[in-house]
Design brief:
Three copies of one chain form a homotrimer.
Chain A lengths: L1 H19 L10 E11 H6 L6 E4 H15 L5 E16 L2 E14 L4 E16 L2 E11 L13
Parallel strand pairs in A: 1-6
Antiparallel strand pairs in A: 1-2, 3-4, 4-5, 5-6
């Protein structure tokens, strides 16, 4: 369904911009109430290991994550710039879409230095609820097997 | 307006390819006569500072920039490779479009070494003039607050 | 032809995902039987030199490449993550499309470290055969003039 794929793609972009802008309260709103969000590594995925670097169960879990981020604030200030490649459709119906999207995440620290921080792909399942496209499942599969710093901000 | 967004997107690509190819005389032709082009930093934008790293007022200003680039030529030869992410629509009418586009700029020096040079986003206003899409305003918002070298070629 | 451009774009993505997944046997299937695939450098292209970093003549040549890759396996294990920018149309008919696409290739080694490995652009000619879009010609023009390691996996 091209319309559903377009809607899923806009959702991915809105979600990335919310994180890039540090507007974290917009991030959970990209997900359904029963959504799962997790970050894992390519190596774990290949090996079939269930281990996740980050796991949020339900939108409530996402809000917890955001609150921790805004309250605790113990990490070095930094911001992201998401570069999205194309989305490969995996499955689709008129009101759902599953696809894979490669990404590169640039990270800029407060001293102004920028480095490629993470790369990999999203495996997303997007559904329509009340006319809005929302993530029901988002799995972030990182190329990296070691993360060089506390992963504070979601990917 | 999807057609206007598509036209704006093609313009962004044409502009990036002109710079990547070192075909600088094609660059001012992407702008209206009264266009403004400026490069600023995310930090300045957030702080509301008007300071710009580069500022060109009108297409004449863009031509000045290109001539300086081709005549003075005091910089280390290098070339760019623009990687564009999706464009987020901000406003649109049948004959204008405003949007935001994340980018990553890879820079290759004459010795063949390549590094991520700049990242950030474009904030563009594109209009139709004589059937052609042209930038009326292009603001380049850099993630970096320090530029490690003279910014010779426009972004 | 927008439909042909869309089909070409999906082909580019399928080809990139096959290489990213290490599913090399899918890669030759993206090409016609009489396809040419070569990797060259921007500097060679500009100078009009015919020298190629890699050259495969016909799909048989691509299979040879894949077999060598899977049998010999003398390279340090690593995998790619392709980031594709937009495709600039160069020529098109209802059943063929030629275009240029900037790319960035991130490479992750077995120790989990990731670096930008290669950047540049594809110059593709895609044709329809039996209803499928396939590369008839793919030229990879690298920004880099030196490759810091054996180029084992195709780009």
């Amino acid at each position: 369904m091209p319309a559903m794929q377009d809607a899923a793609r806009r959702l991915m972009l809105d979600c990335a911009m919310a994180l890039d802008d540090g507007d974290f309260a917009r991030w959970p709103l990209c997900f359904t109430a029963d959504a799962t969000y997790r970050i894992t590594t390519r190596r774990n995925e290949r090996a079939g290991h269930p281990y996740s670097v980050m796991w949020c169960d339900g939108q409530a879990g996402l809000w917890d994550r955001v609150e921790a981020l805004e309250r605790a604030n113990l990490y070095d200030p930094h911001h992201y710039c998401h570069i999205l490649s194309d989305t490969q459709p995996v499955a689709g119906t008129p009101d759902s879409f599953a696809g894979r999207t490669n990404f590169l995440l640039m990270r800029t620290m407060q001293d102004g230095s920028t480095l490629p921080f993470l790369s990999g792909h999203y495996r997303d399942t997007v559904v329509l609820q009340g006319g809005r496209a929302l993530f029901r499942e988002r799995v972030v599969v990182l190329d990296q097997c070691r993360i060089d710093t506390l992963l504070a901000i979601p990917v």
